[in-house]
Amino acid sequence: MPKRIIICCDGTWNEPRESDRGTESPSNVYKFYHALKGVSSDGMLQKAYYDQGVGTGAFRVLCGMTGSGISKNIKEAYGFICRYYQPGDEIFLLGFSRGAYTARSVSGLIWNCGILKREYAVKKTEDAYKLYRGRDSKAHPSGEAAKEFRKTFSHTHEGNSDVKFIGVWDTVGALGLPLPGLGRLLNRVFHRNTFHDVELNSGVKYAFHALAADEKRLLFAPSLWQQTRFAKDPANNVKQHIEQVWFAGSHSNVGGGYQDTGLSDLALEWMIEKAESCGLAFDADYIKKHSHDNHLGELRNSRTLIYKPFRVLNRQRGSGVNEAVHHSLERRKTEDNDYRPVEF
Is a pLDDT exceeding 90 seen at residue 229? Predict the structure, then answer.
């Protein structure tokens, strides 16, 4: 019987036992992962994988600043899919912050190289990743090298990715250093860690993006999905559903990790609702216990400490496809006279 494979990629410096103000404050990715049932109501197994964020463990500061570890996370998530996938399975990809970049990169890797057959899951993952990172025409998904690789080693041969759902909270890809010029320098030095496939491919059926309306850090500029080439082509019959929705709050007010979860739980519940509509099953008791949404919850200023002296970015609507404003942001504007987001 087909199953659902769910990949949950956490953000920079996010890990299961992270705390804020002395209180354990897991991210939305971690809560989403734990809210999943093992089997859905239609009898399908739900096989879930959780990857703690870049910049966790012994080298958390260095890895968080440079993005080192992103490639490892991408390959591990892809390898998990390849080890368990069988034709007919559905793939769900979730992520927050740089974990959202990881999830989107995994989708691009699958689109480029297919899903490796189980006997190649270990020995060909590195080759698949190298092909994916190649930027010449032969390594492109429609190039001869990619086609031959999929034909030889993968389940999928025709560019069908089997990714049913991508759900991400506030995708960012910058290295996160606030020092002028140094961020660009490290981006060049650590170029292998940067993301390179922001376009949503036509193999993804449903795509959802929760965005932070009040994040001001320039280095946390969001990476929205743009109008895709195939979507512009009237001759293309691909049916794809995309929603990019703005929520009140800063980066972690949307992706989770703060003690006050009122705002982030709104974005969590929205994502769970979208995932449920695509077939995932959740533990209602867990959600009731761990989610306490409040549109008037504390809105944190993320421009503190090392970020405070540096440039501000007022996020703007309209640069992505299918953008909307969540009703909770509109309610906050109505009920909180001090809340006046510049672009909303």
Answer: no
